[in-house]
Specification:
It comes from Streptomyces boluensis. By secondary structure, the protein is mostly helical. It contains eight helices and no strands. The protein folds into two domains: 1-30, no CATH class; 36-190, Methane Monooxygenase Hydroxylase, Chain G, domain 1, CATH 1.20.58. 59% of the residues lie in helices and 0% in strands. Helix 3 (37-68) runs antiparallel to helix 4 (72-93), helix 3 (37-68) runs parallel beside helix 6 and helix 4 packs parallel to helix 7 (145-173). The longest helix is centred in the first third of the chain and has 32 residues, at 37-68. Bound molecules: protoporphyrin IX containing FE.
């Protein structure tokens, strides 16, 4: 059964420019029963993760770009854009508040050992943000107060994302271990570094 109509059936320039055919062919639930409630829920789960990965990859591109600019004003604009992406990633997690834990449990075995804990992009983004000056300036460089504040806001945004993710995980799997083999909640709690008071 065709679930999604071909986005560039008429070869619109919009679809060609965004390469929608390729993009919209990538949501492939492993649930066999196409169009069923479980298939729909698994597709939702995949679409949420894929769109988060696209945003995370853009945030890394932005930080790499900021590192090339010696001008504080331009760098602050880029860092604020990354801050806006992180704020969206945080809100984006709330989408999965609309996935029933029981439904997730039904298709979770299909993930095998796949886990967000294996996301290279999130790992690279979070560790970059934890580096001195987020590596947009050398560690010992003097930075303006505005840039320092913009960079501190990124660290706070990562903590907010982690807290929201922790609450999501708690609702979804409780005390169960993660699919990447960690003990789940305890591990995720250990990653949350609250900023000093
Ligand atoms: C049903 C929803 C989710 C559950 C149950 C879940 C569960 C987990 C668990 C248990 C871990 C620890 C590693 C492991 O042993 O698997 C983890 C890590 C992680 N997950 Fe999720 N997750 C969910 C949704 C998401 C979403 C939507 C994203 C966004 C792409 C995401 C990204 C990550 C990242 C980046 C980590 C590494 C932890 C960090 O650096 O803070 N997860 N997840």
């Amino acid at each position: 059964m065709e679930q999604v109509s071909s986005p560039d059936a008429h070869h619109t320039s919009y679809a060609r420019y965004l390469r929608l055919s390729e993009l919209l062919s990538l949501q492939q639930p492993r649930t066999g029963d196409t169009g069923s409630a479980q298939w729909t829920d698994e597709r939702f789960f995949i679409a949420v993760h894929q769109s988060a990965e696209v945003l995370a990859s853009q945030a890394m591109v932005e930080l790499n770009h900021a590192a090339c600019s010696g001008d504080d004003g331009a760098t602050i604009c880029v860092v604020q854009r990354v801050g806006a992406i992180l704020a969206l990633l945080d809100e984006h997690l709330a989408l999965l508040d609309h996935l029933d834990a029981e439904s997730f449990a039904n298709f979770r075995p299909l993930l095998e050992d796949a886990s967000g804990g294996q996301s290279h992009q999130f790992a690279a983004l979070f560790s970059r943000i934890e580096m001195p000056h987020c590596a947009v300036r050398p560690p010992d460089a003097a930075v303006s107060r505005e840039l320092r504040e913009a960079l501190a806001a990124l660290r706070a945004a990562v903590t907010r994302w982690r807290v929201r993710h922790l609450l999501l995980v708690e609702r979804m799997i409780g005390d169960s271990p993660g699919t990447d083999g960690t003990d789940g909640l305890a591990y995720l709690k250990s990653l949350i570094a609250l900023p000093p008071p």
